[in-house]
Amino acid sequence: MYKFCLVHFQRSVERVKTNFAVVGHGRQDEFQKLVNVLLSDTTTEVEFLETVETMLRDFPHTRNWIRWYFEHSRGCLVFPAMQNGTIKGHGDTTNAQEDIGRWFKTRAMIRSNIKNPTLEEGLGIMLREGQTVQDEYSHELRGIRTAYGKRSNPIQREKARADKRSGRNKSKGSRSIETL
Of 11, 32, 97, 178, which sits with the fewest C-beta atoms within 10 Å of its C-beta? Predict the structure, then answer.
């Protein structure tokens, strides 16, 4: 699984590097060096977070791309610094408060570029996170894509599952006069 995700990430890096609207012409080597730091087995947590900050500052159009790859389920499979449980958001601890606090700090840094959020900033970040989930769900219900992959929505997926369970097939539907 790890190599599979890493290959996809490396292909994505190549696409991003060659998109001059995202990584300016002549800055591909600079961008690749930052990516190499993120992928290094020797990168510390501090170096990792500083590199992310540098990428967000120097290549601001990579923000959505960075967010997507740094999500817990993907990031810990690609970046060694996220595998130890402290950056990835849901650590090895069973202490729920520490776990949520770590998740929250990661979200604040990646989504809002804030290292130590104040209470007001924290509430704003939580509100935006909740709103993002609500917006994505609403968009999915209307059939608007919110992620990579085949376009569908929850209602369509449930209908397809029901059809599959009942053995119905669209191509074997009822015939009409127009089809004769």
Answer: 178
CB distance 111 to 124 below 8 Å: no
pTM for this entry = 0.48
Please give the Cα distance from 125 to 118 (Å, whole number): 10
113-169 pLDDT, tens digit each: 777 778 888 888 888 878 888 888 888 788 777 766 566 666 777 888 888 887 765
Domain encompassing residue 70: 1-99
Give φ, ψ of 123 to 5 degrees. -65, -35
- Determine contact, residues 9/1, Cβ cutoff 8 Å: no
Residue 152 within any structural domain of the chain: no
3-state SS of 20-74 is CCCCCCCCHHHHHHHHHHHHCCCCCHHHHHHHHHHHHHHCHHHHHHHHHHHCHHH
Assess if residue 48 is contained within a domain: yes
Let me know if residue 65 belongs to a domain.
Answer: yes
Instruction: Answer for the pair 26, 101: CB distance below 8 angstroms, yes or no.
Output: no
In a domain, 45, yes or no: yes
